[in-house]
């Protein structure tokens, strides 16, 4: 019975992914299909989930000032202005396919880059997944997703929960890292609550200096 349920779940997942791919193909305008990633390969990459990174990884890279990692906030500019991760740039999801007067994709230099590791994030996974799928379909490389988005960031980094008494050393080490990370980012307790949707409520004050950011037309960096 469990095997049957497992098979059914796989078929449902595959159906959802295929529908998503079909919709993705519709929104890519004037495509040169010879340069795009084959749909079959994209589907396998989606299933492999190797394009996800954890909030702990992102926190560690920020703390260590890793210049080879670029955080890309794909929410709307007003959300980005209210709260974002340190050093992130803002490329809203609905602007990823914007083109210049010459017909080139406006954000190609940011999103298709051999030397940097881009990490998309939103409030949850939905919009980041869409951004990643668009860039991979265009055959752009080195793009990833912060799994769980800012909701997961709140849960793991801003509000880490103490492990149970029987926790092993790995769990305790991770908890100690998260406690230290929380102090690095907010300096103490903060009120920040979220739900399972793509909306994050009751955000804390921004933790980056917005005066150092360029406006959206300049790439938000």
Shape: globular
Helical percentage: 40-55%
Architecture of the domain at 30-153 and 193-218, CATH level 2?
3-Layer(aba) Sandwich
Largest beta sheet, briefly? 5 strands, parallel
Proportion in β-strands: 5-15%
Question: What is the element layout, followed by pairings?
Answer:
Elements: H1 2-27, H2 39-48, E1 52-53, H3 55-63, E2 69-73, H4 77-82, E3 89-90, H5 108-111, E4 117-121, H6 126-137, E5 143-146, H7 149-158, H8 169-186, E6 193-194, E7 200-201
Parallel strand pairs: 1-5, 2-3, 2-4, 4-5
Antiparallel strand pairs: 6-7
Helix pairs in contact: 3-8
Explain the overall architecture.
The chain has a domain at 30-153 and 193-218: Oxidized Rhodanese, domain 1 (3-Layer(aba) Sandwich), CATH 3.40.250.10. It is of the alpha/beta class and 221 residues long. It is 43% helix and 10% strand. Mean pLDDT is 76; it is low at 189-221. It starts with a helix and ends in a 20-residue tail after the last strand. The strands form two sheets. It has a five-stranded parallel sheet with strand order 1-5-4-2-3. A two-stranded antiparallel ribbon has the order 6-7. It has helices at 2-27, 39-48, 55-63, 77-82, 108-111, 126-137, 149-158, 169-186; strands at residues 52-53, 69-73, 89-90, 117-121, 143-146, 193-194, 200-201. Helix 6 links the parallel strand 4 and strand 5. The longest helix is centred in the first third of the chain and has 26 residues, at 2-27. It contains eight helices and seven strands.
């Amino acid at each position: 019975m469990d095997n049957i349920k497992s098979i059914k779940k796989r078929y449902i997942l595959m159906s959802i992914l295929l529908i998503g791919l079909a919709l993705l193909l519709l929104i890519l305008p004037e495509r040169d299909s010879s340069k795009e990633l084959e749909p079959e390969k994209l589907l396998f990459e989606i299933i492999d989930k190797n394009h996800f990174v954890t909030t702990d990884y992102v926190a560690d890279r920020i703390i260590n000032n890793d210049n080879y990692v670029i955080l890309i906030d794909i929410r709307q500019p007003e959300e980005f202005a209210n709260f974002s991760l340190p050093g992130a740039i803002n490329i809203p999801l609905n602007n990823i396919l914007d083109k210049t007067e010459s017909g080139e994709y406006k954000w190609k230099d940011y999103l298709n880059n051999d030397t940097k590791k881009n990490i998309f994030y939103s409030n949850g996974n939905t919009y980041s997944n869409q951004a990643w799928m668009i860039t991979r379909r265009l055959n752009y490389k080195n793009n990833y997703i912060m799994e769980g988005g800012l909701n997961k960031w709140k849960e793991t980094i801003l509000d880490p929960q103490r492990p149970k008494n029987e926790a092993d050393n790995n769990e305790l080490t991770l908890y100690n890292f998260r406690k230290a990370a929380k102090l690095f980012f907010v300096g103490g307790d903060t009120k920040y609550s979220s739900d399972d949707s793509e909306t994050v409520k009751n955000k804390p004050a921004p933790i980056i200096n917005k005066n150092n950011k360029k406006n959206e037309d300049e790439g938000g960096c």
